[in-house]
Amino acid sequence: MTGLLVTGHGGFASGMSSSLRMISGDQGNYQSVDFTDGMTPQELERNLRKALEQLYQKQGIIILTDIIGGSPFQVSVKIAQEFSNFRVVGGINLPLLCDISLERMGESSKMEQLILSAMETGKKQMGFFSSDYSLDEMTEKGGI
């Protein structure tokens, strides 16, 4: 099973992980690392490396981050460049995380396919509500 590591600013990683457990139950081969206020990128890197040591790496590891270009993303990319079977995804949301955590259970799942499928799910699950429109009009416009 592909390993997953979630990281991000503040309590993003622990919050996403808590929500994932509530929806999908406990996750195997899964770690999360928060980049808390006052923590340096070097401390984040040490914490990420410790968490990665806890993951089974044979089928690869996907590191999921909150913001493309942010410190958690940059440090994750730095680490991932050392391994041929690591991938980094930035800008995640909860539907993406739920999708990738469930789909990775298949032994034949390739990381790129997992990532692209989960990204599509994350995009499709975004919507909006406006009291200016009826529910039918909102659905047609891509809202709720």
How many separate helices? 6
Assembly form of the protein: single chain
Beta strand %: 15-25%
Which of globular, elongated, flat, extended, rod-shaped describes the shape?
globular
Spatial sequence of strands, sheet with the most strands: 2-1-3-4
Nearest-angstrom radius of gyration? Answer: 16 Å
| Helix share, percent | 40-55%
- SSE class: alpha/beta
Secondary-structure element order, N to C: EHEHEHEHHH
How would you summarize what this structure contains?
The chain has helices at residues 12-24, 41-53, 71-80, 94-103, 111-124, 135-140, and strands at residues 3-9, 30-35, 61-65, 86-89. It is of the alpha/beta class and 144 residues long.
Describe this structure in words.
The protein has a four-stranded parallel sheet with strand order 2-1-3-4, with helices on both faces. The protein is 46% helix and 15% strand. With 144 residues, it is α/β, with parallel strands linked by helices. It has helices at 12-24, 41-53, 71-80, 94-103, 111-124, 135-140; strands at residues 3-9, 30-35, 61-65, 86-89. The protein contains six helices and four strands; from the N terminus they run βαβαβαβααα. It is globular, with a radius of gyration of 16 Å.
